[in-house]
Amino acid sequence: MSVAPAAYGFSTTIEAMKLHSWQLGPGQPTQVTDLFSAESFHLVVDDRADVHVSSKDGRFYLGWFPSGRPGTDGEGWKIAVTGTAAVPGYSISFDTETPAEIVAAAVQRVLAGSRPL
How far apart are the two ends of the chain, measured CA to CA in Å? Predict the structure, then answer.
């Protein structure tokens, strides 16, 4: 009985390795902030021009920090959902150069998973 030798590296094709164009730059933050309605969320713009959005029940938070969140190294977006007594919450951060369209997709997914109690 013979065993085939292990293959090293990876296998690909020239077609798979061709250059791609990637979305870069912060884009338009309104792609994110326009996802929130006044009926369900509070929106505050502070004296630094940072934008804070929170759900009326206080369990969801989104912060946009165009110049970077104070005390961090270039954090531009912060999403946080408060947990319960039985299940911990979570937070997601993006830097200031993350395209708003990418952040909007994450926010849409978080909002899609919410439901009234």
Answer: 62
Tokens describing residue 24:
């870069």
Q: What is the pLDDT of residues 90-102, one digit of tens each?
A: 999 999 999 999 9
* Token output for 72: 């961090």
Euclidean distance between CA atoms 111 and 117, whole angstroms: 14
Model confidence at 56, in pLDDT bands (50, 70, 90)?
A: very high
Tabulate helix, strand, coil % of the chain (nearest 5): 15, 25, 60
Residue type for position 62 = L
Q: Is the pTM of this model over 0.85?
A: no
Mind giving me the DSSP string for 60-75? EEEEE-TT--TTSSSE
